[in-house]
Specification:
The protein is built from 5 helices and no strands. By secondary structure, it is mainly alpha-helical. It folds into 2 domains: 65 residues, Up-down Bundle (Methane Monooxygenase Hydroxylase, Chain G, domain 1), CATH 1.20.58; 88 residues. Helix 4 packs antiparallel against helix 5.
């Protein structure tokens, strides 16, 4: 049997009223009352069948988090700035690595014969190409940040005074 496949609802008004709680995002406790009287055997049997089916239903209840519009807008405002700062730190880290590589390569060039100079020059070109790509991506993030800032300004003040 599938765990969340089907909730076995009884044909009763109470079950229909509780339907959202039984199958939704809620923790539910069901109390079934039965009677030992011979005259209520059929009702007791049906109640026990319902209880055995209902106990098989597993719900995954969790607390609903409601974010206010103001908090959501602040989060959206901070996101492009965070992305820009991340790109800036990555660029700085890359420049440090490239700078360290260049220094070590120049020392290696002095120690090695001149045959290795073209190889090091090619690696420098690759590093410069990589730095150029990072700079372009940083510029694209700056433009995206400006677009987001304009959108936020329009949302905050949809009717600017002229």
């Amino acid at each position: 049997k599938g765990r969340n496949a089907h909730v076995p609802y009884r044909d009763s008004k109470l079950t229909r009223i509780l339907q959202p709680s039984l199958g939704g995002n809620a923790r539910t406790a069901i109390i079934c009352t039965i009677s030992p009287a011979q005259s209520h055997v059929e009702q007791t049997r049906n109640t026990l069948l319902f209880a055995s089916c209902a106990k098989e239903v597993a719900t995954n209840a969790h607390v609903n988090v409601v974010i206010s519009d103001k908090a959501l807008m602040e989060k959206e405002i901070k996101e492009p700035t965070r992305q820009r700062d991340l790109a800036q730190s990555q660029l700085e880290d890359l420049l440090k690595v490239v700078g360290d590589d260049k220094a070590s390569r120049h020392v290696a060039v002095i120690d090695k014969p001149t045959k290795s100079v073209p190889q090091n020059a090619w690696e420098d070109d690759n590093s410069l190409t990589e730095i150029s790509g990072m700079t372009q991506s940083y510029g694209a993030l700056e433009l995206k940040l400006q677009d987001v800032q304009k959108t936020i300004d329009c949302l905050v003040n949809p009717y600017p005074e002229e």
